[in-house]
Amino acid sequence: MASLDLVSPVTAPCRVVAQMTNFASHVTDAGMDPKTVPLTFFRKASGAISGPFDDVVRPAHVTLLDYEVEIGLVIGREIPVGSEIATVGEYVAGLVVTNDVSARDIQLPQTQFYEAKSYPTFTPVGPALVLLDADELKRFADLRLRLSVNGSVRQNSVVGEDMIYRPLEALRSLTRFQRLDPGDLVLTGTPAGTALSAPPKVFEKIAALLPPALKWKLFFKRQAKNPKYLADGDVVEATVTTDDGALDLGTQRTVVRYQR
Question: Is residue 69 part of a domain?
């Protein structure tokens, strides 16, 4: 048994859908207003799914590797487009810890997320798929998301204090246009504390006057000095649990490896 590796409890192929800017602290950190941010989604390739203790591999051409601890909803039954969803428990089988790993230097100039968040190992999932009944799901708001790098806490937030759009609202919106099937994974957003944050207002005003190529060159030069981006050998631990331990999705531990 000691020689066995724990794999992701969510298997590919499947749909991986993620909510954008869904924690007030993260929205503010990105320089936006939580009161006006819309409920929006993006897709990740299911080929990015990896196990909870697998290495996170940074491709050789990527320079700014970031982390985002998130709660994943694992769909338990078919949800056709146009479904009327009364409760989350009808359709969600359980919850998992996920990390929405992101190549920021790919994401930002492209102004879309798919490539930057879809490289192999960019969605660690697990360690467990925690099946919850209706009463347990009522405590979703009590879940605390924490992520540390080399033992230093970077993200630490409670759903009820920070999440903007809860799962019921998100699923109702998503299924207006997107079918979901058993085994699909919906990521519900991340709190503040990622390496990427909004640049100072003065920098934004100056950058707005520059040609795009020069603007991005200056921005990434500035970002390259940020020590929070993941380095080769960094140990990332992500956990989701209630403070009283009644609900515990477990802890994933991944090591960052740079591709040469």
Answer: yes
Examine residue 7 and state whether it is found in any structural domain, yes or no.
Answer: no
Task: Express as a percent the part of the chain with pLDDT over 90.
Answer: 80
pTM for this structure? Answer: 0.93
**Structural tokens at position 5:** 């590796």
User: Could you tell me the residue range of the domain that residue 244 belongs to?
Assistant: 16-258
Helix (H, G, I), strand (E, B) or coil at 105: helix
Domain count, the chain: 1
HSE-up (13 A, CA, CB side) for residue 128? 11
Q: Which pLDDT belongs to residue 203?
A: 47
Bridge partners, residue 163, by sequence: 23
Cβ-proximal residues to 189 (8 Å cutoff; 6+ apart), any chain: 18, 19, 20, 21, 22, 23, 26, 70, 163, 164, 165
In a domain, 1, yes or no: no
d(CA 235, CA 254): 6
> What is d(CA 77, CA 162) in angstroms, rounded to the nearest whole number?
28
Q: Judge whether 164 and 173 are in contact, CB under 8 Å.
A: no
Rounded CA gap, 76 and 80, in Å? Answer: 13
Distance CA 229, CA 66 (A): 6
